[in-house]
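QA checklist item 7 of 12: single-chain prediction sanity check.
[x] sequence parsed
[x] length recorded as 793
[x] structure emitted
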Amino acid sequence: MTPHRLRVPKSSAPPLTGHLPFADAPGVPDPIGVTSRWLTRGGRPWFPVSGEFHYSRYPAWEWEEELLKMKAGGVTTIASYVIWIHHEEIEGRIRFDGDRDLRRFAELCARHGLDFVPRIGPWCHAEVRNGGLPDWLLARDCTPRTDDPAYLEPVRTWFTEIAGQLRGLDRAHGGPIVAIQIENELYDQPGHLRTLKRLAQEAGLSAPLWTSTAWGGVQLPGEELLPLYGGYPEAFWTEADGGWPDTCRKHFFFTHERDDEGIGADLRPTTVRGADPLPADRFPWATCELGGGMAVAYHRRPRVEAADVGALGLTKIGCGSVWQGYYMFHGGTNPPGELTSLQESHATGYPNDLPVLTYDFQAPLGEYGQVRPSYHELRLQHLLLADFGHRIAPMESVLPERLPAGQHDRDTLRWAVRTDGTSGFLFVTNHQPHEPLPDHPDTAFTVDFPDAPPLTLPSAPVTVPSGAFFCWPLRLDVAALRLEWATAQPVCTVEAGGRTVLVLAATDGIAPELALDADTVASVATPSGEVTPIAGRILVSGVRPGTDALVEVDTADGSRVGLLVLDAATARTVYRGDAWGAERLVLCGDGVVFDGDEVRLRSAAAEPSFAVLPAPDSVPGVAEAQLRVAADGVFTRYTIEAAPLADTAVPVTLVRPAGPAPEPVTGVQGRASVPADKYVETVAAEYHVDVPEDLLRAPAGVLLRLRWTGDLARAYVGDVLVADQFYSGRVWDIGLDRLPVEEVRARGLRLRVLPLAADAPVHVPGQAGDDWRAAGVRHAEWVVTRSWAVRAG
């Protein structure tokens, strides 16, 4: 057996307080503060979860539902770039209408109890044209992103416009704005960052926190801006033939290094990499760009899987993060420009060619609001933080005695502990993209605490499977019960049946065990397995995870606690929210939102179902459908008996076969460029799709899902480009409700697919042979997601 031992040092000095120039508005009921190690809110440690969602890349009529999806996914704070070129493409005509209505977006956040972080630039990047700076500004005789007065003059006007939109939405007026980000990825202009903050404040913007991205050896203006970090599982901005970047690989190790010199490295000189890090003893470890996915560039088309996102996020908590910020959490679509297209491209001097329209980012919530497996993976972690984040935030990250020898060490188990000196959480990551990590047989852990007896777990060594990542509790108090340790991950708590129920998630391949402090237990009942007293503990083993695996404990003080151990798959269907007059758990593999007196379920299943704990007193109602009720362990399951779905097959007509692939062309930094439009018009295979009338009458929630091969694909209604994608092996979804219905009715949908030359310097992962380079639509189907409003009975 390989020993896995960790010695927790004596508690370090208390964190610094009051040393940073951040202050909340006077008199707010829950003042936000910053210590040197964690954030506070209302005098208690605060662990925010932020997700990036670009309002100007999504239809305004759908904002509210998508914000509720993010909230149901455990996001507590919405971050969004305020992209200048989206609002003032034409000088002097500043638009805040429709999909650009910044104020309405912020007000919706407030309405649903979500904090808001506007990232005001002026330069944002965001894979947008000029990084968000309008063309007319770049045409001026000025030096952007400096204190050049000719640049600061229009910036001052722009900030004033933003401030006008957000007036009255600051904390002093009960608004949702908890932080404002200045600029982005500006590594060598600390004086300019200070100037921008001053201009924003003079314009009327205010927030308890002012932030800046801090990767790449950034130089910040003293302590005026809170540094925020990031880390991605993959990157589109590296070379096509560069393999998996070490700067991405590092994020699947437990370390105390915060910086990532790889993010944005294609847009700054290599000389700034490796600069002196910012003082970690002054600032908490906060993030704003943990990769919820990754964009796809023409020359490099990475694929990010749910496990990649989940493992990276959990690893960062184990490393010491106290603010989980994801980019992107919700995908979108570039708005059509009035003068030019608005994507990052070689034509605008950038090293990467991006698609004209799609900014899906492979995000947990997709370009059309698709609920992806990564959404469920992250929600599992966010439920943990919602209940236990205030405990985790002050805990220090401690690394074991035996560490990996380097970033290419795949044999040393990766683990860490967040601890307060007597209790904590044990984190393990045995997953990374591209290069699977091996099983770790005969694994047990010993954690030596300075102020409490050591813990060794499990009761007998186990095999940590390849691909596993998890968090186990160490001395976790649940009501009056002390859970000494468990080989299952805490999810959340709920009150049900007169008891506090702690839900735990089993890990596939590891038998769950629960070790209870005997002094806190009067009796234990388990539906399966064994209960064994061992040296002051009561060990519950052999529990079969599932919806019926409720271990019932009567505590020594006369209260009741339940420990519900769900299997790994079911745990990833857990939602928690206020529904029908109480806080409840809902199990559903589809999309669920909680909105006042109703729960909305969105599903493409023929007979969608959901399970509830505790069940409402009476059967809830669903318009135009019946609910079938059945027991599901300790849950009550409801199945919607609805009208059958129509045929989802899509007849796709080949109008013109593809010609020979165009010769590859390179652009900025010698990287492959998108083929010229003339090739899409003359060489691409062309297909025609007629959309059924019944779908056109109700296009909401309808996707055309295409499986295709080739280089790039574009969809048109008439001559108007409505969707596009570079081939990476992923399906291509097109939302029917984004298309002009009358034009589609009259003309149908036209698809053009370009083949890829065999010698194109393009990285497309996971492909074998050359058949995938040929242009073709291989399969097409309609995916119809119906929405069900479930109200109290």
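[x] summary fact logged: DSSP finds 13 helices and 46 strands in the chain.
[ ] second reviewer sign-off
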